[in-house]
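Explain the record.
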Amino acid sequence: MFLCYSGKKYPTMNKVVLALSLLASITCYANEPEDDIHAFTLRVQQLEQKIEQLSSDVHATQNSTASLKHEVSSVNDKISALEMKSDSIDNNLMNKIQSNINLTNSNHDAASKQIQEVGTESKSEIHKLSVWGSLATIALLIIACAIYFILRRGIAKSSDAITAIRKAQNNLQEESVKLDTRLVDILDKQLNIDKIQNNASAGIDHSLALKVADEITRIEVNLARMDSSVKGYKQLTKAVDRIKNNFQANGYDIVTYMGQTYNEGMRINADFVVDEELPDGTRTITSVSKPQVHYKGELIQKATVTVTQNI
């Protein structure tokens, strides 16, 4: 029975219960030997110590309970104060919201009125702009038609001028072909006469042959730039071929290099012109003022050319 009440299962046991337990224990041990009485005395002392400890725990518990009651009361007071403050805030917030709603409604009415006024003014302005736009479009159409007829007349005049220029150019080319044909005939005759004179004398004079070679080269360059439909083009080409054959028969050979790719190993006099529209590294002979002339395999005149390049 003592062991049953000595545990911590009942920390709030009062002194009466402990005293009854002690009395029962004394009754149980009244007739026991002296050793058992001594043990009993020790046990009683232990129980008294536990009673004091329990009393101290009860007192501490009572103090804690009082403190908790005080804290609960304080919390309740704070909750009441918060509820009052919340009610006040809610009232103020509702008043502000209602005030904002009233202000918004007022602004909306004013904005609606302004929108109506702007819409009326916009319709009026749009009508005016539409009228002015129509007038401007009509004016632009009239101006465009006038410009078109003026340009058409100018284009017609330009077309007539271009036709006249082409016609004049064609006439000039025809006259040039006639003159070159006559010149070739004269040079051919002069070349035959010079051949007879050279055969009659001991020395050979190449001056006439070189002049003929220069003229032949000039005529060939002009033919290369001329349309083959020009009147007299074929006759001049045949005359040039004839005098070149006569030239070769006399031991002369002409090399023009026209259209060939230039390289440093050529034995020619070259002038260089830069053309950036050509592919990189291009070097082409585009003009010949003097051809290269050989007489019986021997060089008697170096060619003078123009090289167009992009390097």
Summary: The beta strands are 252-255, 268-274, 282-290, 292-295, 298-301, 303-310. The first strand starts at residue 252 and ends at 255. Residues 2-86 form one domain. The chain has a mean pLDDT of 78.
